Amino acid sequence: MKNFFGKVRLAEPQVSDAERELFGGPLRYDMGWSQHEHAGLDLTMGSALRQMPTLVGATLRMAWRADRRALVAVAISEIAQGVAAAVSLLAVNAVMHALLGTGSAVERLHELLPGLLAAAGVAVVNSALAGWSTSRAGRLEPLVERIATTQYLAAATAVELEAIDDPDFRRLIDIAQYGPASARRMIGACVSALNSTISLVATAGVLTVLHPALLPMLLVIAAPRGWGAMRVAQERYVSMMSWIEHLRASRLIGGLLTERTAAQEVRIHAVGPFLLDRYERMAHSAEAEQERLAAGKAVTEWAASALSGLAMAATYGVMIWLIASGHMSLAVAGTAVIAVRSGSASLGALVMNVNQLHEESLYVRDHGRFLEEAAERAIPSGGAPLPEKVERIVLDQVTYRYPDRESPALDSVSLTLPMGSVTAVVGENGSGKSTLMKVLSGLLLPQEGTVRWDEADVADLQRTQVFDRVSLLTQDFQRWPVTAAMNIRIGRPDHDARPDDLQPSIDYAGAGPVITKLTNGLQSLLARVFRGAIELSGGEWQKIGLARTHWRSSTCSADSILIVDEPTSALDPEAEIEAFDRIRRLAAPNRAVVLVTHRMSGVRHADRIYVLNQGHLAEHGTHDELIASRGRYAAMFAAQAAQYAPSAAIPNPTSPTVADHA
Ligand SMILES: Nc1ncnc2c1ncn2[C@@H]1O[C@H](COP(=O)(O)OP(=O)(O)OP(=O)(O)O)[C@@H](O)[C@H]1O
Question: Which key words are in the record (predicted)?
Fold first, then answer.
């Protein structure tokens, strides 16, 4: 037997065998939106109504900022519609009195004419008001969504990189993306809720004027409907939560089967038929779950309608008794029947609106929470100006630990980068090289120690000015889905560039042949996903990346730093030698170049080489000094040289090989 009055609980979803086999259990995303998934179960009419002012307040404030005239217009038209509903009921009452009054048929028709005309007039005015409200709300909705989206994007791009690396904050970014669309839907739900409330108040007012017993009757009829709507909403919410568990798993499989990156293994390893079979099995269990929930919903709706019907019958019974005992006229009873019907419809709609507002507000609240936290974690906008000329950039005893890590990625690292020099940083995987580059560029601020441009600490400097002096080419540099020209110009997007302006950067990077091959040259769109676009190979992209870096550094006349992190991983041997040569040539009196790479051949000509090991600075010096000291660098160099030279030609290092340490 279904327990109608117990709390709706979120049942642990059934896990199909296929899910267990593939994922070891249910697939639960660590995604932000799931954080508030249980908040929906707190959905009782009382709690939703109590929270209503706070929930609606934030959206209305946004709407007020977006277009206050449109907001006022919506409010006026909705209030006027409520008044029209009351006037319409009074007109109906007058018609009833005329219809059921005494006199000949012609006399009664004469008498009811004004009431009829009034009702028709009110209906016309009412529909005009509804149209006005719809058009103004239609203006507000996209405005509110745009404002909320802009706030979201602006806040997300303004936070420190450390926040982006923080899993908790990432979850918040993820969840907050749903806020703007919810804010837009809340406008519609607010308008509907206002409409239902005002209609209800108007109906209740008219009923009280007609007869004091009618208002309680309305409530008795409408209460079961309200309860039913709320109960169905809760069950729908729970249904969605259970359903979504299965949906995630089957969507993931569907995505994998059609993804380009998986296409080769899907075919060669026969992963396709295997995953398709598991997909079907998951779909079966998801369908069974949906069927079960649909049946439950049907029973709840039936129970709510039955209760409402019983209440209606009882009310009509009381009404008949009131008429029979002379306490209520037939005309008032006729009007009351109409009013009770429209009143209970308004109450049902109100319950649904409150419910929708509550659901949407969960996302809007997360959006607000994100904006608050993003403001706290934003890159400070103030700070001291960075001098045009500096002699060196110094890292002094820098320690950096990622928010979710126990041990530091960099531990008391010190190095000096004089302007005009080329510095190489080498080390095994995970030794902290990329982290060092992020600290150097001002993207991460060290927890201990300082990064200084001469004597000025980066933490005290205006960070936008620091960024302006940094050119960064990382191994996973962004392959923007824009034209080839824009992919280069985007290195300094606020600097206008004609194709001729970009030519030195293209020549520098050896990207000329890549561009020539493209159908529309520099104007070719580089994004496989769009029609007419072209996909470049990894090595070709690296040349575009190098051209972008050249464009960025060549458009900065002040003293600057150029950081290149694994720039040649996808280049063929010839192109790699050329690329290292080009990078070295970028060193200029007003520029310090830092090169991070695993390719030892590329670093031997650097002015200074720093070797990182598990976040510590293991050794530093020139290539010859480091080879002579037979330490870690010599071991790494020997290991790579051994791949190309006969073993007899390789010096025998005293320190352990890289493989011994891995
Ligand atoms: N965003 C991050 N969040 C948490 N830990 C990180 C993050 N990035 C790097 N780490 C950790 O910090 C340590 C140093 O990583 P880093 O990427 O700086 O090494 P690397 O020397 O550049 O490695 P590779 O040669 O493989 O690119 C590693 O243990 C890594 O797991």
Answer: ATP-binding, Membrane, Nucleotide-binding, Transmembrane, Transmembrane helix
User: What is the pTM for the complete model shown?
Assistant: 0.76
Helix (H, G, I), strand (E, B) or coil at 508: helix
How far apart, in whole angstroms, are the C-alpha atoms of residue 331 and residue 327?
12
CB 399 within 8 A of CB 449: yes
Cα(32) to centroid of ligand 1, in Å? 24
| pLDDT tens by residue, 149-182 | 999 999 999 999 989 888 888 878 888 888 899 8
- The 8-class DSSP code of residue 525 comes to B
Mean pLDDT of the chain: 82
Residue 211 to residue 194: CA distance in whole angstroms: 26
Q: Which pLDDT value is given to residue 599? A: 75
Query: Which residue, judged by its Cα, is nearest atom 20 of ligand 1?
Result: 430
Q: Where are the alpha helices (DSSP H) in 67-213?
A: 68-99, 105-158, 161-165, 167-176, 179-210
pLDDT score of 106:
78
Q: Is the CB of 402 inside a 6 Å radius of any atom of ligand 1?
A: yes
Distance CA 6, CA 235 (A): 12
Q: How many residues does the chain have?
A: 662
Q: Is 60 exceeded by the pLDDT of residue 648? A: no
Contact 432 CB / ligand 1 (< 6 Å): yes
Provide φ and ψ at 329, rounded to 5°. Answer: -80, 160
**How far, in Å, CA of 233 to CA of 241, rounded?**
12
**Dist. CA 447–CA 441, nearest whole Å:** 15
Q: Which residue's alpha carbon is at the smallest distance from atom 12 of ligand 1?
A: 409
Q: How far is the CA of 440 from the centre of ligand 1 (A)?
A: 15
- Ligand 1 pocket member 405 (CB < 6 A): yes
Pocket test for ligand 1, best of 435, 444, 565 (most atoms within 8 A of CB): 435
Q: Is 612 helix (H, G, I), strand (E, B) or coil?
A: strand
Mean pLDDT is highest, among 6-10, 324-328, 354-358, for: 324-328
**Do strands 608-613 and 448-453 pair parallel, antiparallel, or not at all (unpaired)?**
unpaired
